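Hello,

Our lab assistant flagged a job as stuck in the queue for most of the afternoon. It eventually completed. Since we weren't sure the result was trustworthy after the delay, we are filing this so someone can double-check. Below is the sequence as submitted and the structure that was eventually returned. Let us know if re-running is recommended.
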Amino acid sequence: MNNNENNNEIISMQEWFFSIIISGIPIVNIFLFILWVIDKDTNPNKKNWAKAFLLLYTIILIIGLLIYINYHQLKN
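-- returned structure --
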């Protein structure tokens, strides 16, 4: 761990609260997660949280698409 990570400010409860509320808004959340991941000034904790959510959404999307494709192949 480098010194830069140790000097980051703690994210307040209010900021986490609004981040979690915003993460529940469809479409907006994906754009904000991408913004937080690519923004250099974003706190590393929030950046990692956004990366984890994007990874989770990607996994859910892939599983959903596989189920959809599989269902329609069985239907025909």
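-- support follow-up --
The delay was a queue issue, not a problem with the job. The result is valid. Residues 44-75 form the longest helix (32 residues). The two ends are 55 Å apart (CA to CA).
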